[in-house]
Amino acid sequence: MSSKMSRRKFIQAGATAAVGLTVVPSTVLGKSMGYTAPSDKLNIAAVGIGGMGFANLKNLESQNIVGLADVDWKYSDRVFKHFPKAKKYYDYRKMYEELGKTIDGVVVATADHTHAVIAADAMTLGKHVYVQKPLTHTVYESRLLTSLAKKYKVATSMGNQGSSGSGVRQVIDWIWNGEIGEIKKVEAFTDRPIWPQGLNTPKQVDKIPSTLNWDLFIGPAAKRPFNNIYHPWNWRGWWDFGTGALGDMACHILHPVFKGLRLGYPTKVEGSSTMLLNDCAPTAQIVKYTFPARENLPKVAFPEVEVNWYDGGLLPVRPEGVPAGKNLNDSGGAVIFHGTKDTLICGCYGVNPWLVSGRKPDSPKTQREVTLSHELDWVRAAKESPENRVETASPFSEAGPFNEMVVMGVLGVRLQSLNQELHWDGANMKFTNIPAGATIRTIIADGFKITDGDPSFDKTWTEPVDANAYAEELIKHTYKNGWKLPAMP
């Protein structure tokens, strides 16, 4: 035995090799070693199952689905029936308490504002986590989950399934091989939202369905009366619960940009939109990010790059050379990489990449091929020991910083009334150029009405608040109603 290899690593390496020859049950190898035989099934619990969570669970049916938690049992009824052996809960905390010792992994697919606390609680219990996109609601929450994943050495994945696809791998290979040259500008768009946005806060108070625990849905957000516009699914457009079209779709569309261009923290962000309301995301937005130069690769340099985002039907100008009549929207959006040698375009999820020149280069393959589903690749990683684990296509070590970029765009939009480009200190999670004493107001209600055929807006505004304090609250929320995140490691 090499003096540089511990007995534990030697045993794990031998066990891993043995699995290639025969099935070795975990009772022989010992789960306490951090290794689970590929033949064994993980015990998986899920929180937020009525929507995308159900799709994730159906891709995990080869494992043991042991616990299901959702605040709305009517919305989740079909899922409960699909997994009749799983225990049912309203409150995920009770599920963790009762099943915690038997759970191996947790799928989180709730509203955006509760992703972080549910995933953080699971990781502190040593559970592997798969979290739907956007990974979190805020920059701070993304940084926290990234740090917790590193501390607890659990297998992690964000639910941006395109990261496991061949399109993303092709985009990266072409960029890293220098096929399109240096990239100083990127444009991306989505056809979302397909849910209501730009709405005034409803005044009507609807009756809470008997099958819905509204307080649990609210969670760490500020309390508000129930209205059917918020739930289910349409919560995406409300700032307290969601992140609008940007948070929903940029995690799919901008992933090949973030990974292909080896981005980190942006240094600048600026946003604009249709009418910005205090409570609801606007119907359309534009965001401009600036990223500093990065370390070059052998075949391509990475200078400062500008990344532009459009949603709500807004589109970038069509690049020169794109055939007339060709719709660039592919599967819900597109990315345009403007290179010094060529222009690369791909669809949402990185699908169907192509070069405007018509070339089809055969570049060296640089990325691990994912042969399983995005969800089962997470299961594969969870069964491997931390020392020997091959990370998923979107582990929190990458998805965390990437998600910080995404929700930074939300900050740019929500701070647009400062009428300035915002400078960002990524390491310290703060803006550096908001003037001391600057204030910000937002529109509570647009007051739209028509009098004798004359349309008008009698807007109701919030009182002016300190802009720096407002920005800090958007970066790191103050959790309410007794909810609390674990400390930053």
Task: Explain what the structure shows.
The structure is a single chain. With 489 residues, the protein is of the alpha/beta class. Residues 1-30 have low confidence and may be disordered. Strands 15-14-13-7-12-9-8-16-17 form a 9-stranded mixed beta sheet. A 6-stranded parallel beta sheet has the order 3-2-1-4-5-6, with helices on both faces. Strands 10-11 form a two-stranded antiparallel ribbon. Helix 6 (115-124) runs parallel beside helix 7 and helix 7 packs antiparallel against helix 13. The protein is globular and about 60 Å long. A hairpin with a 6-residue loop joins strand 14 and strand 15. The chain has helices at residues 7-19, 26-29, 52-58, 77-82, 92-99, 115-124, 139-152, 166-176, 214-218, 244-253, 255-260, 374-382, 396-414, 467-475, and strands at 43-47, 64-69, 87-89, 105-108, 128-131, 156-158, 183-190, 268-273, 285-291, 294-297, 300-302, 305-310, 333-339, 343-347, 354-355, 422-425, 430-431, 439-440, 443-445, 448-451, 454-457, 460-461, 465-466. The protein contains 14 helices and 23 strands. The chain starts with 6 loop residues before the first helix and ends in a 14-residue tail after the last helix. Helices cover 27% and strands 20% of the residues. The protein has 2 domains: 7-164 and 371-395, 3-Layer(aba) Sandwich (Rossmann fold), CATH 3.40.50; 166-370 and 403-475, Dihydrodipicolinate Reductase, domain 2 (2-Layer Sandwich).
Précis, in short:
With 489 residues, the protein is α/β, with parallel strands linked by helices. It folds into 2 domains: 7-164 and 371-395, NAD(P)-binding Rossmann-like Domain (Rossmann fold, 3-Layer(aba) Sandwich), CATH 3.40.50.720; 166-370 and 403-475, Dihydrodipicolinate Reductase, domain 2. The chain has helices at 7-19, 26-29, 52-58, 77-82, 92-99, 115-124, 139-152, 166-176, 214-218, 244-253, 255-260, 374-382, 396-414, 467-475, and strands at 43-47, 64-69, 87-89, 105-108, 128-131, 156-158, 183-190, 268-273, 285-291, 294-297, 300-302, 305-310, 333-339, 343-347, 354-355, 422-425, 430-431, 439-440, 443-445, 448-451, 454-457, 460-461, 465-466.
